[in-house]
């Protein structure tokens, strides 16, 4: 019979290992990203980003809106979605937006084996390069990493960019006005805004991106009137 103290020690060691592999990398990544943005962000400048797309139902209207207001954005796209919408990726790059990586199938890196991060990034890079894009930035789904995620991204010349402001625009029942209010109430100088032009995940509302676009019709002019301007990731440190 194994002594109770030994069993407790084994369980404690297992919990510590699990925390080191599953939790600590994500927390470190988020803290590091916020620190970098605070140091390099420019007063009065905002970085507008969109995750999970593209989506043929919503992304074209979003691009129309951004063009109307002269707002550049960084689209962190899911590789398989990009492969299904090649014209939208080409349009993003042609219209001056940045195309970044948001994994190939929107899988949570936190719970994957060590080889996952490199394979996922390689597949995503190949898909986007085949569409004429040259990604320089990476955002892991949910901001979750394992100990190898940031290393594999850096090894491929990718900078990891998370966010400082969300508006829960994916939620069921999120109205355009409520999303706009959240944005206007949470945005500050040098914020990185994370919104979505496609809904992915069990709790996501498939119609939410349409309301996000309506929310931006309210929020973009208000932010510009408040003196904010929008930049791309490469302008962070200028």
Q: Any idea what the radius of gyration is?
A: 19 Å
* Beta-strand residue fraction: 5-15%
Shape: globular
Helix content: 40-55%
What gap, in angstroms, lies between the N and C termini?
Answer: 64 Å
The helix/strand order is HEHEHHEHEHEEHEHE
Secondary-structure topology with pairs:
Blueprint: H1 4-40, E1 45-51, H2 59-69, E2 74-77, H3 79-84, H4 86-94, E3 98-101, H5 115-129, E4 137-138, H6 149-155, E5 159-160, E6 165-166, H7 176-186, E7 192-196, H8 208-225, E8 229-231
Parallel strand pairs: 1-2, 1-7, 1-8, 2-3, 4-5, 6-7
Helix pairs in contact: 2-8, 7-8
Brief digest:
With 238 residues, the chain is of the alpha/beta class. It is built from 8 helices and 8 strands, in the order H-E-H-E-H-H-E-H-E-H-E-E-H-E-H-E. The radius of gyration is 19 Å and the shape is globular.
Descriptive overview:
The protein has 238 residues and is an alpha/beta fold. The protein contains eight helices and eight strands, in the order H-E-H-E-H-H-E-H-E-H-E-E-H-E-H-E. The strands form two sheets. Strands 1, 2, 3, 6, 7 and 8 form a six-stranded parallel sheet that branches. The longest helix is centred in the first third of the chain and has 37 residues, at 4-40. The protein starts with a helix and ends in a 7-residue tail after the last strand.
């Amino acid at each position: 019979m194994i002594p109770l103290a030994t069993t407790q020690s084994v369980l404690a060691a297992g919990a510590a290992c699990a925390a080191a592999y599953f939790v600590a990398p994500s927390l470190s990544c988020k803290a590091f990203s916020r620190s970098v943005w605070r140091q390099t962000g420019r007063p009065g400048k905002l970085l507008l980003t969109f995750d999970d797309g593209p989506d043929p139902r919503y992304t074209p209207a979003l691009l129309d809106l951004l063009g109307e207001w002269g707002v550049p954005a960084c689209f962190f796209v899911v590789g398989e979605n990009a492969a299904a919408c090649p014209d939208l990726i080409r349009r993003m790059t042609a219209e001056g937006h940045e195309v970044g990586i948001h994994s190939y199938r929107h899988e949570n890196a936190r719970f994957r084996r060590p080889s996952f991060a490199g394979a996922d990034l390689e597949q995503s890079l190949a898909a986007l390069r085949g569409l004429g894009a040259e990604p320089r930035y990476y955002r892991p789904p949910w901001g979750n990493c394992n100990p190898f995620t940031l290393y594999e991204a850096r090894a491929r010349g990718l900078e990891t960019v998370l966010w400082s402001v969300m508006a829960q625009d994916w939620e069921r029942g999120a109205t355009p006005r409520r999303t706009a209010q959240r944005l206007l109430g949470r945005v500050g100088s040098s914020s990185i805004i994370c919104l979505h032009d496609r809904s992915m995940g069990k709790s996501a509302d498939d119609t939410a991106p349409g309301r996000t676009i309506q929310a931006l019709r309210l929020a973009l002019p208000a932010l510009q009137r408040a003196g904010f301007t929008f930049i791309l990731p490469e302008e962070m440190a200028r």
